[in-house]
C-alpha cells in the first residue's frame, strides 16, 4: 500500500432556482342514488375537466388519470346492502409548464361542478440540468477544500483515491394551495368565467454533496 498521506473531505453545493413545472391534483366527483347514474355523471364531469385542460395546449406538459372509483355509501355501517347512494371519483394529475396560464387554469378547474383542486406543488423536472450543476459544484468544493488543507500543511494534492456521491436532493419551500370543491351551477346555466388567481412560484432549493479522498505529498510540519 502507498505511504502517501490521505486527505478526506466533504463537498456540498446549495442552489436556489426557480421551479420548472407546477403540479396540480384534481378530484372530480359524482354522488347519485343509482350506480349507473353516478357513473354517467362522473364520466361527463371527467370529460369536461379533461377538455378544459387540453384546451391549454402545450402550456400543459402532462395530463394523466391517476385512478377512478365507484363506491357504495351505506346508510348504516353495520348493515350490508342498505345503500344510501353511490359516489364516483376520478383523480387527474396535471403538470403545467407555462406559469402564465396557471392562475386561470386553477380558477376554472375549481369552478367546475363537484371538482376539487389541490396545488400547485412547484418542482423541477427529474432530468433538470440543475441537478448536474449542483453535483459539479459539490465536486469543485471538495477539490478546493482538499487543496486548502494540503496548502495549510505545506503539501500539495497528487491524486484522487475515491469520490462518493451522496445524491442530489430537492426541497420545496412552498406549501400546496388547497382549493375546496366547487359545486357550481346546474349544467347549461349561464355563468361568467372566474377571475384568475395570482400565484407566485416558490424557489426550489437543490442540495448536492460528495465525499472525496485525495493523496498528497508529505506535509512540512515545521
From TrEMBL:
It comes from Actinomadura fibrosa. Signal peptide: none annotated. InterPro entries: 26kDa_periplasmic_antigen, SIMPL/DUF541. This is SIMPL domain-containing protein. It comes from the Bacteria. Pfam families: SIMPL.
Amino acid at each position: 500500500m502507498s505511504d502517501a498521506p490521505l486527505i478526506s473531505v466533504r463537498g456540498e453545493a446549495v442552489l436556489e432556482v426557480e421551479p420548472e413545472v407546477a403540479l396540480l391534483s384534481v378530484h372530480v366527483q359524482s354522488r347519485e342514488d343509482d350506480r349507473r347514474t353516478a357513473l354517467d355523471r362522473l364520466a361527463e364531469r371527467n370529460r369536461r375537466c379533461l377538455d378544459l385542460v387540453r384546451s391549454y395546449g402545450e402550456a400543459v406538459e402532462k395530463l394523466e388519470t391517476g385512478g377512478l372509483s365507484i363506491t357504495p355509501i351505506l346508510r348504516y355501517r353495520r348493515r350490508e346492502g342498505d345503500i344510501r347512494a353511490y359516489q364516483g371519483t376520478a383523480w387527474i394529475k396535471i403538470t403545467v409548464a407555462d406559469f402564465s396560464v396557471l392562475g386561470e387554469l386553477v380558477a376554472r378547474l375549481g369552478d367546475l361542478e363537484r371538482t376539487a383542486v389541490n396545488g400547485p406543488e412547484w418542482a423541477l423536472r427529474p432530468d433538470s440540468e440543475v441537478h448536474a450543476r449542483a453535483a459539479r459544484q459539490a465536486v469543485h468544493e471538495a477539490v478546493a477544500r482538499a487543496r486548502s488543507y494540503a496548502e495549510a500543511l505545506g503539501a500539495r494534492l497528487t491524486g484522487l483515491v475515491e469520490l462518493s456521491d451522496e445524491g442530489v436532493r430537492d426541497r420545496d419551500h412552498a406549501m400546496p394551495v388547497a382549493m375546496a370543491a366547487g359545486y357550481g351551477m346546474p349544467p347549461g346555466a349561464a355563468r361568467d368565467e372566474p377571475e384568475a388567481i395570482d400565484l407566485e412560484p416558490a424557489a426550489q432549493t437543490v442540495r448536492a454533496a460528495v465525499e472525496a479522498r485525495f493523496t498528497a505529498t508529505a506535509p512540512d510540519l515545521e
